[in-house]
Specification:
With about 250 residues, the chain is an alpha+beta fold. The chain contains five helices and seven strands, in the order αββααβββαββα.
Length: about 250
């Protein structure tokens, strides 16, 4: 995988590299699935690498995967870690910033939903988060609001409660950041320059609220928390030990 990454990353930012052993019926050997963020980068890599001896003795066969007809796959929001990876690649680390507008505990806000006979030891922790992403060089500012939730098996265990709370906070912030990035369209030109547009089709009712309204969002009794439960792709290597992903633009 390291050799594949070294070769193909020269053509553009890679989303993932996965190498697998061939099935028994195909004979000895391996195949790999390499995902680019950009279809243009993938096409250039295929043209340049197909039939070449890159890091092995035999020529490598490289094809561009196409979707099968009749096969529908659920489209999930890009994970916040991947959103930040894209932003750092195209805008530079100092070319964008994010900040947490509000992070509120909304546990139990939707009313007591405990079924009859269920013990009080098990309960859920919920946090609602609003995040703002700014691209100062492009004059674009977007917001995202999302809900993080997790069950606590034993709410009387202080360590379990603190661990779950921290995990849910990080989950809510990450999903809100992902939601904000869904409203940003990147147009990568052939010369490598990047144009940015705001995708108004992804707008939510909360985008028109002031910061004060957002901070008081949970005080609205008719609020349906489920509308903020963004379904985000899952990364197996996600760690909850890091700091909450908020990035302020450094001062000059």
């Amino acid at each position: 995988q390291h050799s594949l990454f070294s070769v193909f990353s020269k053509f553009g930012l890679l989303y993932s590299v996965r190498a697998h052993r061939n099935a028994a019926v195909a004979g000895p050997g391996y195949y790999a699935i390499i995902k680019f963020y950009s279809a243009g980068d993938a096409s250039r890599a295929q043209r340049a690498c197909n039939g070449q001896r890159l890091f092995q003795k035999s020529p490598l066969k490289v094809c561009v995967c196409t979707k099968q007809k009749g096969f529908q796959q659920q489209v999930l929001a890009l994970h916040s870690n991947k959103c930040q990876e894209l932003a750092n690649h195209y805008f530079g680390f100092n070319g964008w910033s994010s900040r947490i507008i509000t992070l509120q505990n909304v546990s139990g806000f939707d009313g007591g939903n405990e079924e009859l006979g269920e013990t009080l030891q098990k309960r859920s922790v919920k946090y609602l988060c609003a995040v703002e992403v700014t691209l100062p060089n492009h004059g674009v500012r977007t917001r995202g609001v999302a809900l993080g939730e997790a069950d606590i098996e034993n709410s009387e265990d202080p360590l379990e409660f603190v661990t779950a709370t921290r995990r849910v906070q990080k989950l809510a912030v990450g999903k809100a950041l992902s939601s904000a990035f869904q409203k940003i369209l990147l147009v990568v030109l052939e010369n490598g320059k990047v144009a940015v547009e705001y995708d108004s089709t992804q707008e939510e009712l909360t985008d028109s609220l002031t910061e004060e309204d957002l901070k008081g969002l949970v005080q609205v009794s008719e609020l349906a928390l489920e509308q903020f439960d963004l379904e985000e792709e899952v990364l197996s290597d996600l760690s909850f030990d890091d700091e909450l992903p908020s990035r302020e633009m450094p001062s000059n």
